[in-house]
Design brief:
344 residues, single chain, Rossmann fold, alpha/beta
């Protein structure tokens, strides 16, 4: 079985992080893979066994990307081509392979018109796809993974954070959807707590100015984009996930994988998976007061933190391990190839 992955995503983001993790997991399994992606992903992917091709995926000028895709297809003759998200799927052509469209959110299905099968990362996303395709039987749920390394906790001293201070962590693009302004609005009510924000994006200057205006700059650290997610989580007391819009949320699963207590806003993804008081605390979207109350409750109650930590680990073990993902997606690949042979 040979699978070609087509990824046109941004340099940073949860879906992009999962893409890298998924390719690496399948590489360890020995799957024959080819990758066509943008330059900012190519360098990080060339250490594995997969052949990597670079394409621009331009919005208006499509021929250079189509040429790269045609060349990669002709050279490797893949059995399956998996298109990761809408931009990639808009380049899908019928060349004899099975085309799979991957959904990490509620994407417009017009871009997936040349896909044969569809994968969503939550049941709600799968239902969204089923409502908009001709054959709902060709839709499958495949969860993401969080397999983090065994790195020791990141150094608080190196990030000018007192060893004894309650430490909050937010892992997110600095974008309006992620609700980081709500988290900053909660910080004045969280006396003594420090906050690390790991991520980059268009709102950095605005968020830094907000922290200064609120008088909490001395307790907030903007770390930029980080790849040491496990180390940051293990150094933190609470992972805060305040997104306004979140179809799923890889951060949620990463917190569970490391046993870091989770406080999340009730966006679609967390709402589907977080059981309030069991594997996390749930608060309303856009409510800094409720967010501060939940964080204070968690900070003050070590038994609650222990319960959320263990509940999160159980949720991770049930659905989001690398072993579960590899078994599920390779079984899906076998299914779609069997269906193609049956039609032939």
């Amino acid at each position: 079985m040979r699978v070609m992955h087509v990824m046109a995503g941004a340099e940073h983001g949860g879906a992009e992080t999962f893409f890298h993790d998924a390719v690496a997991a399948l590489d360890r399994q020995g799957l024959d893979q080819i990758i066509v992606t943008r330059p900012h992903h190519a360098g990080r992917l060339r250490g594995g066994r997969a052949a990597v091709y670079v394409a621009p995926f331009g919005r208006w000028l499509k021929m250079p990307t189509r040429h790269v895709l045609a060349h990669a297809f002709e050279r490797h003759n893949p059995d399956i081509v998996q298109y990761w998200m809408g931009r990639a799927a808009s380049f899908a052509e019928r060349r004899g392979a099975v085309n799979v469209g991957w959904f990490g959110g509620y994407y417009d299905l017009k871009r997936y018109r040349n896909c044969d099968w569809f994968v969503g990362v939550t049941q709600d996303i799968v239902e969204h796809v089923k409502r908009n395709v001709a054959d709902p039987a060709r839709c499958r749920l495949i969860h993401t993974i969080a397999e983090l390394d065994d790195a020791p906790p990141a150094s608080r001293k190196a990030l000018d954070t007192p060893a004894e201070a309650p430490l909050l962590l937010a892992l997110a693009r600095l974008h309006e959807k992620k609700g980081l302004d709500v988290l900053l609005d909660a910080m004045p009510d969280l006396a003594g707590a420090y906050l690390w924000i790991a991520g980059e994006g268009p709102l950095r200057e605005q968020l830094e100015a907000q922290a200064a205006r609120l008088g909490v700059s001395g307790r907030v650290r903007f770390l930029g984009w980080r790849t040491d997610r496990a180390a940051l989580l293990r150094a933190s007391d609470i992972c805060v996930f305040p997104s306004r819009y979140e179809p799923f949320g890889t951060v949620m699963v990463e917190a569970w994988a490391t046993g870091t207590p989770l406080v999340a806003a009730a966006a679609a993804g967390p709402r589907a998976y977080v059981k309030d008081g069991e594997n996390g605390l749930m608060v309303p979207i856009d409510d800094p007061r409720a967010l501060a109350l939940a964080v204070r409750r968690c900070m003050a109650d070590p038994l609650l933190r222990a319960r959320l930590s263990e509940g999160g680990r159980e949720s991770w073990r049930a659905n989001f391990t690398e072993q579960t993902f590899v078994r599920t997606i390779t079984g899906f690949y076998d299914e779609v190839l069997s269906a193609r042979r049956g039609r032939s």
